[in-house]
Write a structure and sequence with these properties.
With about 475 residues, the protein is α+β, with helices and mostly antiparallel strands. The protein contains 17 helices and 18 strands.
Length: about 475
């Protein structure tokens, strides 16, 4: 997935994560006798406070990953109307001694944005205002809505293909997507933000104001330092795109993956590509697809060396469309409205960054894994990095993964009422298979509750600086979850 998960698992929470979730609050935050004053909070908000049994609560409480729906039963969900509402929620949580989670789109892979006593829901902060080459966007703006509004001005932001992901959740953890090699990560286009701090103050940060906070938000901002209530972003031209996909017979799969990884990394920045290994009980298959900021003739010229180096393709799709239409097509939607419908899937996932191309042994191990029969359905996907992503120094933002050539994701989905055991085990097996060939780092936007060394996996050498920022802006750990800094 760029920042979209293909429909095919996510995993159980470690005892360590559970212990962190139950850790005591600081002594400065004592719960009031009789529990939180929810009536008082409701009266203080411009937005709506949903309680169990109230209209809209059941639908709103659900995370996008329905694996974690049973535990997503907050005592209250604050549908905030503005930053003042968010600040009131933060102060209320401190006074009441309760935990809260911040949710922009509910896409946290581990369900951690939906399972606290209070959920601060930013879905109604979804405005998009364009000013020249800059845009001010609400944190709860669904990605496809942002694409559509920006396209009216001939602009876009570098982002993924998951249409319903909230913009803040995407941007603050990095944000891989179809124009990343051309325009950088989503966080690389962030030029400023409005943030509600852990003490309830509202500040603006950018390269000049609160620069350490601004640095930390770009790659480690999800739930760690404050609640982002507005994002100011540099926009880029939304040009016509060519969406492409090629498939190969299984006997040619290893050759195709080997050739693809070198080709995709060396391609011009305006070409982005990924490679899928689809695993199903009745067999496995592979394909490569992507997006070119350009026309079909140029695409065919660029892809010719890849096709010459591999076996005969079994299918080919090459279509040039306007930018928004290309994003809709890549997301599998007919229009913006259909893109924003709720999903009904549970899933498990894991990820790795790879700092070197996959050697022959890694390819053999992967396809040996994929050929096993009787396993759960899943997909291993690789995204080619390089380009603008890798030209940013590793310490210029909190996003440290600037030297990798590939991002891998292991994903399996299942109906919400099915047994999660087999697909979750499939993901764990895929992760183990590829771990020896990875850098040991993982993508922080693909939260993995089973990842033991998550601090170094997500943040690498930037971790000490991030811990200093955390201590400065949230010394009492008001913002907390199992993988909070």
């Amino acid at each position: 997935m760029t920042d979209r998960a293909a429909p095919v698992g996510r995993r159980t929470v470690l005892a360590l994560g559970a212990a962190a979730a139950l850790a005591p609050w600081p002594a400065t935050a004592r719960a009031r006798t009789g529990g939180p004053d929810w009536t008082g909070l409701a009266a203080s908000l411009t937005g709506v406070l949903l309680r169990p049994g109230s209209a809209g609560y059941e639908q709103t409480r659900l995370p996008r990953n329905l694996r974690y729906a049973p535990q997503a039963r907050p005592e209250a969900i604050a549908r905030c109307a503005d930053s003042a509402d968010v600040a009131e929620c933060v102060r209320f949580a401190r006074r009441s001694g309760i935990r809260f989670a911040v949710r922009s789109g509910g896409h946290c892979y581990a369900g951690w944005s939906s399972d606290t006593p209070l959920v601060v829901d930013l879905a109604d902060l979804d405005s998009v205002q364009v000013e020249g080459d800059q845009a001010e966007l609400g944190p709860g703006t669904p990605l496809m809505t942002a694409y559509a509004e920006l396209a009216r001005h001939g602009r876009t932001v570098p982002a993924g293909t998951c249409p319903t992901v909230g913009l803040a959740g995407l941007a603050l953890g990095g944000g891989h997507g179809v124009t990343s090699r051309a325009y950088g990560l989503t966080c690389d286009s962030l030029t400023g933000a409005e943030v509600v701090l852990a003490d309830g103050r509202v500040v603006r940060c950018d390269a000049e104001r609160e620069p350490e906070l601004f640095w930390a938000l770009r790659g480690a901002g999800n739930g760690n330092f404050g609640v982002v209530t507005s994002l100011r972003m540099r926009t880029h031209p939304a040009v016509d795109c060519t969406v492409f996909q090629y498939s190969w017979d299984w006997p040619d799969a290893g050759e195709a993956l080997t050739a693809w990884q070198y080709w995709a990394f060396a391609a011009p920045d305006r070409l982005w590509s990924n490679f899928h290994v689809w695993c199903r009980p009745d067999g496995a298959s592979v394909d490569a697809g992507g997006v070119l900021l350009g026309g079909s003739d140029e695409l065919r010229s660029l892809v010719a060396p890849l096709l010459a180096a591999t076996g005969r393709t079994t299918s080919e799709q090459v279509v040039t469309r306007p930018y928004l239409d290309s994003m809709l097509a890549y997301a599998g939607c007919r229009d913006v409205a259909s893109c924003l419908r709720e999903g009904d899937q549970a899933f498990a996932a894991g990820s790795h960054f790879f700092d070197a191309f996959l050697p022959g042994r890694a390819v053999d191990d992967l396809f040996g894994f994929a050929q096993r029969r009787g396993r759960a359905e899943g997909v291993v996907s690789f995204t080619a990095l390089g380009g603008a992503v890798n030209r940013v120094p590793a310490d210029a933002t909190a996003f440290v993964h600037r030297g990798s050539v590939l991002l891998g994701q292991y994903f399996a989905g299942w109906p919400a009422d099915a047994d999660p055991g087999p697909p979750a085990a499939w993901v764990a097996d895929a992760h183990r298979t590829m771990a020896p060939y990875s850098s040991g780092h993982a993508y922080q936007n693909y939260r993995d509750p089973d990842l033991a060394e998550w601090r170094t996996a997500y943040y690498g050498d930037n971790l000490p600086r991030l811990e200093r920022v955390k201590a400065a802006y949230d010394p009492d750990r008001v913002l907390d979850f199992p993988q909070a800094l």
